[in-house]
Each structure stands twice: as C-alpha cells, then as structure tokens.
Design goal:
Blueprint: E1 2-9, H1 10-13, E2 18-20, E3 25-29, E4 34-35, H2 51-61, E5 67-74, E6 77-82, H3 84-94, E7 100-101, E8 107-108, H4 115-123, E9 125-132, H5 135-144, H6 154-161, H7 165-174, H8 182-185, H9 197-209, H10 214-221, H11 228-244, H12 257-264, H13 271-283, H14 293-298, H15 314-331, H16 337-340, E10 356-360, E11 375-379, H17 380-386
Parallel strand pairs: 4-6, 5-9
Antiparallel strand pairs: 1-9, 2-3, 3-4, 5-6, 7-8, 10-11
Helix pairs in contact: 2-3, 7-9, 9-10, 9-11, 9-12
The structure holds zinc ion.
Length: 389
C-alpha cells in the first residue's frame, strides 16, 4: 500500500458538502470527489453539541484536527477511511446545521460569524494521507489502525471488512433508527441502533442457528442482493418470544433469544400460565437473578441455578450445624441426617462444618423458604446426590 501526504484547506475539503439528515451521514466533499461516508463506515456520531462543537473550537483556536486518511479509489475518487466524523462536523457547521458559543457566550452559526472567523475556519489546513492499495490491503489496514475519536466496535469492523450489498441492506434494516419496528425489538435487544448492536444481534442469531460465527455468515452472504434469511429468522425469534411472554419486563432485553428459540420453540406454552409464573417469580424475594426467569420458565421450572435463589447465610448454617451436631452426638449417630438414616459405616460419622452444605428441607421451588426453620445441614456427598432443586 502506497501513502502520500497532502494538505487541503477546509474550504477545499467541504466544497460541495452534502449532509443527509435521514441517514445521518455526511455524503460528499472535495467538489464531489470525496465520499465521506462510504457504506462500510459507521454513521455520524458527533452530533451531540460537544464533539462537533469541539471540532469547530479547535479550528478557531488554530489547533490541528489531526491526521485524515483517504482511500484513493481512482485518481479523482476518494473515500474517507479515517476522519469522517471530523469532516462531517466541519461540513455541517459551515452549512449552518449547528451553533457554537462565542467568547461572549452567544450562539453563533457559521453565517453569523465575523468575516475573520469565517476565513480562519475556511483557510485552516488539514493533513491527509492518501492511501493507494488493493481493497483487501485497505481493509486490513483499516482494521488495524488505531482510529482517532471513537474506536470501531466489533460489528463496525465486520461491516467494513465484509462491505458490499448484503451489509448495505442489513444496515438499512437493522442500523436505521428511523425503522419503526425497533420499538418492538427493543424489548428483546439491548444496545444502540447506530452502533450496530441490533445488526450484531440479528446476525449472531441467524449465524448461531447454522452453527456459524457471525464473520463466517457475513463472508458467505457478502455479495447477496437480499437479506431475506437474516430478516425472516430475526422476526421469527422475536415473534416467538413475544408470543410466549406477554409481559415484557426490562430483564428480557439482551438475552440470548436466538439460542432460547432454538432450544425451546418446539415446545408448547400457555401464555397466560407463563405470564402468571413470571409474575410470581418477579414477586419472589428469593430470586436474585431475574433475567434467568425466562429460561427457567421455558425449561419447565426445573433449573433453579438460573435464578440464583438466595442461599442460607453463614450465621444460619453455623447455628443449624451446632444444633444438629449436638443432637447427633447425644444419640451417637451422624450429624448428617441422611448418613444417620443409612446402614453403612458412615451412619455414625460426625462431619466438620466445612464438609457440609446447607439444604432446603422443603425445596424452594415447592414453596420452601430460605430461613433457619427450613435449613438442614447435609454432608457434601448427600447434598450433591439430592441434586439441584
Ligand atoms: Zn450424609
């Protein structure tokens, strides 16, 4: 890959700047020769009244904006590899899309600035490395450079590496904050639409259902001209989960719904009964991990480990141990009631507290409470044999 260093003024850079409000993207610069946000780039994220303002303040103070990297597609066609957030901020400012505060605390848009300040911005110089290489060289490099500003996250990198029609269509569906279906998806998916978290989720679900990693799936579908499979699978999972669980508590967000769908969708559930059970478990103070409730219910209420049911505290264990052990010694039997009931050599064994575990006499799942009245100490082998409950 060949790189050449060049200097541009802001005036040159933002000549012909177009900002697309709908897609949240800066589109062109350098009199139309520069594509600011090629499809593999993330959306514009600096429009927060802080980072965009900081870019303009830097120019007014004469601070450098740092290096920019352009990919030379042809002699007269370039794409921004690094610097699109900064260029878009400048372009939006000079087209009066946002205001800064001047030294007297007054809001100023570009048009309302004094002539000398306008000139200062427009004549500021920007340092650009032009990179010339094959697509894979550019993308490999793009993946490894330490990009200034906001580092690319995993999915943004994958979008860059596997850019093409499939990623473009997938982003239009899953990375588009104007897509009204997000209001339904938000019950199940966690994260930020613009930072590709919905796309990442949709891809991971469909990939996992085929035993693939997300990057393998993206590589296989890179040049597809549709995203039917991705869309249908994602919607199937969402429809299934919404059908089984009528109420949508916040703990549902971000669970592995793809895996849950694969594991449980062939079983039938009565949504009213499911709703009652979920409500009961939400009200149960012993359930410490509410996000485990959904899989617990799907799995037929057997795996209590999912709920991290409250355990007996040390004071309770110690008190029960002492009482059980005193009683056992006076009767000459084991202090583990299961051992004492047996007929082998262990029936008289006095276990040390460290070799015993606290057990619910009546299982929590059958209404047993986690208090001293429902606590018994069992030797570890017997407690394990009694199993998970
Ligand atoms: Zn025992």
């Amino acid at each position: 890959m060949k790189t050449t260093l060049r200097t541009y003024t802001v005036r040159e850079m933002v000549d012909g700047f177009v900002y697309n409000e709908l897609e949240g993207k800066g589109l062109f610069g350098l009199s139309g020769k520069l594509a600011i946000q090629p499809e593999y780039q993330r959306n514009y994220l600096y429009a927060d009244g802080k980072r965009d303002v900081a870019v303009i303040d830097s120019l007014l103070k004469g601070y450098p904006l740092g290096l920019f990297y352009f990919n030379d597609v042809t002699k007269d066609k370039h794409e921004v590899l690094d610097g699109q957030q900064r260029i878009t901020s400048v372009g939006r400012f000079i087209t009066d899309k946002f205001a800064i505060l001047d030294e007297n605390g007054h809001r100023q848009i570009f048009s309302s600035l004094t002539a000398d300040k306008k000139a200062k911005i427009m004549e500021s110089e920007l340092l650009v490395y032009h990179c010339n290489g094959t697509e894979s060289e550019i993308k490999e490099w793009f993946k490894t450079i330490n990009i200034a500003g906001i580092p690319l996250n995993e999915q943004e990198l994958l979008n860059a590496i596997y850019s093409g029609p499939f990623v473009t269509l997938a982003k239009a569906e899953f990375s588009n904050s104007f897509n009204h279906r997000i209001q339904k998806w938000v019950d199940f998916v966690k994260g930020n639409v613009k930072r590709q978290d919905y796309l990442a989720t949709a891809l991971s679900w469909v990939a996992q259902s085929k035993g693939l990693e997300t990057d393998q799936y993206m590589a296989a579908h890179r040049f597809d001209d549709n995203i039917n499979e991705l869309k249908i699978y994602f919607n199937t999972v969402i429809e299934w989960a919404s059908g089984v669980f009528r109420s949508k508590p916040p703990e549902m967000q971000g669970l592995e719904w793809g895996r849950l769908y694969e594991t449980y969708h062939k079983q039938s559930y009565n949504p009213s009964k499911v709703e009652e059970t979920v409500e009961r478990l939400y009200d149960d103070d012993y359930v410490r991990r509410r996000s485990g409730i959904f899989e617990y219910v799907l799995g037929g209420e057997t795996d209590t480990r999912l709920l991290e049911v409250r355990v007996f505290d040390n004071a309770t264990k110690k008190a029960v141990y002492e009482q059980q052990t005193d009683e056992a010694k006076s009767k000459g039997v084991s202090n583990c009631p299961y051992c004492a009931a047996g007929h082998d050599a262990g029936k008289n064994k006095i276990w040390a507290i460290k070799d015993m575990d606290a057990d619910h006499v009546t299982a929590w799942s059958k209404g047993g409470t986690t208090d001293i009245k429902n606590c018994q100490m069992l030797c570890k082998p017997h407690n394990q044999a009694k199993g998970n409950k």
